[in-house]
Amino acid sequence: MKKEQTLIRNKIYGIALGIVLVCMMLLAACDNTLNSSDENGYGKISISFEGGAASQTTRTILPSTAFDKYVYIFTKSGGAAVEKTPDKNGLFTLELGNYTVEVKAYIGVAEPYTLVASGVSSQFTVSSGSNAAVVVFLSEVNAGGKGKFSYTITYPAGATAEITLQKWPGLNNIALNPGNIANGKTQTLQLDTGSYLLAVLVNKNGSSAGISEAVHITSSLSTVYTKNFNDNDLIAPIAVLNVTVKPSTSLVVGGTEMLYAEIEPSYATNKSVTWSSSDPDVATVSANGLITAKKAGTANITVTTVDGSNKTATCNVTVSASAVDVTGVSLDQSSVSLYVGDTETLVATLEPSNATNQNITWSSTNTSVATVSASGTVTAVALGNATITVTTEDGGKKASCNVTVTIPTFTTVTAFKAWLDAQPANTKEDSYAVALNLNSLEGLNTVLIDAYSKYVNLDFSGSTFTSIGDMAFAECTGLTNVIIPNSVTSIRGDAFIFCTSLTSITIPNSVTSIGGYAFSTCTSLASVTIPDSVTSIGGYAFSFCTSLTSVTIGNSVTSIVNAFTGCTSLVSVTIGNSVTSIDSAFVGCTSLVSVTIPDSVTSIGGAFYECTSLASVTIPNSVTSIVNAFTGCTSLVSVTIPNSVTSIGGAFIFCTSLASVTIPNSVTSIGDSAFVGCTSLASVTIPNSVTSIGGDAFGSCHSLASVTFQGTINSSNFSSTNSFPGDLRDKYLAGGIGTYTRPYGGSEWTKL
């Protein structure tokens, strides 16, 4: 028995006067090995599919969902064929040169797919940058034989249905029995194998719904199509609101140009138009907008909508007896000053105005300062200067405009407020860049908080104030970037607390102290560099900066206490060589993978508590005490404690992945809970330098199976409270120096 495929679709399209079968398939791909098509030696292309030679004039083909799989094989002149796979970028990026491309189209839901169409392009050239689309004409393969096709269309009472079936690629209509239009009646056909376009239009009281589907018929497969329309599917006609067309063009007698009408809205139900010429003796226009120049003169080509809205647009056509060369080009402005983020459109004028080739290109000498679009719109990007140049395609004539990009500058808070009040709301990505040259920050906090939905970058580099006071910018949620002036020596507590949009901060070398909570909960701050001039960082200075990924601490800071608590995105830390103590500095930094502690550090207390991603750490020989330093570091696998350490107190609590630890001969005391809950620790050697072991020192170390004691520990200094699992304490006090083992999970230890 033949297999059966069922096609059920829910795509509904509102169509008033008929299914529009003009469906251009524009598919493309991009080489994933490149980040940009502008790299030297590469260019980019797209591929347009056409449904065989018969479609060249009508551009009528199957929908873009016609086939289930496409294969693209590029052959460079003198080179081997290479298959490229499309990605979401919609472009192929290729080395410069001459190519052909073969496209194979398949149907099916899984391997093996069935090849149903293929085509090979003419040779094309890939140049640097963007290139014209390459057209591939697809034709059927493996034609022959017949297959069964059954379809059932159901629609609401009182509606009418029109059904067409066309054979691809020529899209010749297939004769259908009129009885097949009856509501809910199944029609069965014997069709030649190949691809077809099925179109259904349902109308009821002026509202309509429709579908167009690709149908593939094979000799081994019975294809069944079912579509149910209901009243909710029907859409009232959407009128055209506007139509536009290229405003003017120049042609030489005998020349042609295709005009394209842009319909607004793009989802209007009936986007059909008609074309007419005011003087057909000068220029004619075809039904699809193709202008043909007949004799020297001028004519207006008018496009008119046919949906009843009667919208029109006109293109002025100048026809010359022969080509008119471009002799020059000029711009309406030779220089322009813009603020960062502003735009200005330059207007180019060709000489003579009736030059045949009106095409121009735009370029910028410094796109990091100012960019320019294909229509001449300049966008100011950053401070600096750039030259915008327009170049004619005919003759390479040039004209330039010098662009200077600055930012608004104010010397009083009052003037800044007046300016900011006049600006429209913006986004964080489009923050206003402003320079403030102030002697005092008084009143600025209120201005920024009141500027709801307005984001600003503030450059204070020209200011003279010496301190950023307590809560100077607290809760200024529209502050995105700040440059602090060289006059500032201290940033006081809570200065920028809850500045949740602050993404970057420039701290100058003049600053010597950063107060407690100064940048706490600046949740957008991604990186910070603390200069060498800073000698103290207050508690929780950068706490809960959850976007902070990297920190560089200068060489003058001597201690870090709670400074980066809750910085859950922090992955990289550089600690200056003057730091001597780290106390709870990185608590809850759950993304921190590794850290290098400088030789200047002598004590680590609670520094990396709950740093659950920390897998490795190097403790320098300068450290003498480790207390609660790595509690909850569940990813820490191994650690080497240097010979300088004399005491370990609660250092590795619940380091559940810790499998190996080396305790040096310098350690005299292993404090309470030093390794409690290290469930992966299998063995440990207690050196002869150790004279005391606290309670729960190795409690709940369930995998601990071998312990070697190299020295003597008095019972009074050996805690009886779960210092080791099972009876190890008692066995050691009775048996003395040696290695003790137990079976996994056992409570009784045996001396070897």
Q: Mind summarizing the main beta sheet?
A: 7 strands, parallel
Radius of gyration from CA coordinates: 38 Å
Q: What is the 3D form?
A: extended
By DSSP (H or I, 4+ residues per run), the number of helices equals 3
Assign a percent range to the helix content.
Answer: under 10%
Q: Helix/strand-derived class?
A: mainly beta
What oligomeric state best describes the polypeptide chains here?
single chain
Q: What's the overall average pLDDT, rounded?
A: 86
Intertermini distance: 77 Å
Q: Care to count the β-strands? A: 65
Model regions low in confidence, pLDDT < 50 over at least 5 residues = 1-40, 51-65
Q: Give, in spatial order, the strands making up the sheet with the most strands.
A: 50-52-54-56-58-60-62
Portion in beta strands: 35-45%
List the helices and strands and how they pair.
Blueprint lengths: L2 E6 L16 E3 L14 E4 L1 E4 L18 E8 L4 E4 L7 E4 L1 E11 L6 E7 L3 E3 L2 E2 L3 E4 L1 E2 L5 E9 L5 E8 L4 E2 L12 E7 L1 E11 L2 E11 L3 E8 L13 E3 L3 E5 L3 E3 L3 E3 L8 E5 L5 E3 L4 E4 L3 E9 L6 E9 L7 E4 L3 E5 L3 E3 L2 E4 L8 E5 L5 E3 L4 E4 L3 E9 L5 E9 L2 E2 L2 H10 L9 E5 L7 H7 L5 E4 L7 E2 L10 E5 L6 E2 L12 E3 L6 E2 L12 E4 L5 E2 L12 E4 L5 E3 L10 E3 L6 E3 L10 E3 L6 E3 L10 E3 L6 E3 L10 E3 L6 E3 L10 E3 L6 E2 L12 E4 L5 E2 L12 E4 L18 H8 L2 E4 L8 E2 L1
Parallel strand pairs: 1-20, 3-11, 4-12, 14-20, 22-29, 31-38, 39-40, 40-41, 41-43, 42-44, 43-45, 44-46, 46-48, 47-49, 49-51, 50-52, 52-54, 53-55, 54-56, 56-58, 57-59, 58-60, 60-62, 61-63
Antiparallel strand pairs: 2-4, 3-7, 5-6, 5-8, 8-9, 8-10, 9-13, 14-17, 15-16, 15-18, 18-19, 21-24, 23-27, 25-28, 26-27, 28-29, 30-33, 32-36, 34-37, 35-36, 37-38, 63-64, 64-65
